[in-house]
Amino acid sequence: MSDDLIENSGEFEASDADETQSSEETEPRFVFTPPIDIFESEEGLVLHADLPGVSSETLDLQVQDNKLTLFGRVNPPVPDNAELRYQEYEVGDFLRSFILSDEVDHERITASLQNGVLKVTLPRAPRTAARRIEVSPE
Question: Strand order of the sheet with strand 67-72?
């Protein structure tokens, strides 16, 4: 897991997935690369990403131009009326991108989030049958 402390805004844009956004909100936040497991079957690929502290409301999953990007925002666990006295781990957001092959059917990608684990199903695109192309004389 790589840890980068960056300036991060409240919004994520897929076109700038690999770059840090800055805006009026300039609170520095850690951005972690979540660990990923990928399984392959005849139907396609299944991706599991560990995203502790991310909810479906704070998760942005996008596919654009064969690039799958996930960004999960984690809200600090300290209540507003409390003060953090001791901390052994850093809290931060999660960001990861993948280039998908042409074999993935983008229209049928599905995802679910349960107990901090994101499951993304990437079905294979149906193969087109070979067809003979008629060549007309000039």
Answer: 3-7, 28-32, 92-99, 67-72, 59-64
- Of 26, 30, 27, residue with least CA distance to 87: 30
- Please state the pTM of the whole predicted model: 0.72
Question: In the beta sheet, which residues pair with residue 104?
Answer: 124
CA distance 66 to 101: 7
Q: Which of 54, 56, 53, 50 has the alpha carbon at shortest distance from 36?
A: 50
Question: 115 is written with which tokens?
Answer: 């107990």
- The span from the CA of 62 to the CA of 13, in Å, is 9
In angstroms, the CA 94 to CA 125 distance is: 28
Return per-residue pLDDT of the chain as tens, 138 residues: 334 444 444 444 433 333 444 444 567 889 999 999 999 998 999 999 999 999 999 999 999 999 999 999 998 778 889 988 888 878 899 999 999 998 999 999 999 999 999 999 999 998 888 899 999 998
**Domains of the chain with bracketed CATH:** 31-75+91-123 (2.60.40.790)
User: Max Cα separation, the chain?
Assistant: 83
